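Regression report. Comparing outputs from two consecutive submissions.

Submission 1:
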Amino acid sequence: MSLALVAVLGTAVVLTNEPERQAVTLSLFGLSLTVLFVVLQGPDVALSQLGVGAAVVPLMVMLAIRRMRRDQEREADGRGEAGE
């Protein structure tokens, strides 16, 4: 059951087009991997996956998206690198 959930969510991450939704799906995928590691009796790996895969990586993706959009808005307003 856990392995099937990981497979379904992994496919969902790949098939998601919008970056924001992909970050959320990536977080759910990380949570499913955490459950799989607990089922396979790897609590130390599960804790690492919970911290990194389910929280830190999606957060970094969201921050990168925000930064890129902010930079694009600045360029559109004509305030590129020289205007800062």
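Submission 2:
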Amino acid sequence: MKNLLLVLMLLFGFTAFSQGLTLKKNTTEELKLEKGKIYQNDIQIPSYQVKKILASNLHSLNLYKQAKSKEALGGMLLGMGITASVVDLAIGLFSDVKYPTAITYAGLAVVAISIPILSGRAKKVEEALKTYNDGLKNTSSSTTNFDLNTVANQNGIGIQIKF
């Protein structure tokens, strides 16, 4: 009786802490870029969710991350350049310092550098979405993919099934 009770407790424990297998129908829809915003099923999706969606296609995810890096770098340079020029203008207006100084010229140069950096980001996002959408078309026409792997980590060993 003790052995039967032990086996039942172990089975109950395994089922309580196991992850249930849920099968989802493939509802991936194409991503669309309209006016700089990304839509899926005519609903705008935020950047963090776009990264999760693009994670299935590493090439498109890499292009999207490059576009976001260009956006961050270009925005930072644009902000620094404008700030430097405005600060130098304010100093020139409210004091007896000769305006424009080297700070204004450096600020305008940084703004000029940021423009080509920012202009390339939209092309990268378009390319990332195009690669992702092309990948969807290729996988939807093929048969169902099935991947079986063994997994080992600090929690133990197991079997991973991907559909």
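Expected: both submissions complete independently.
Actual: both completed, but the second showed a warning that disappeared on reload.
Relevant detail on submission 2: The two ends are 41 Å apart (CA to CA).
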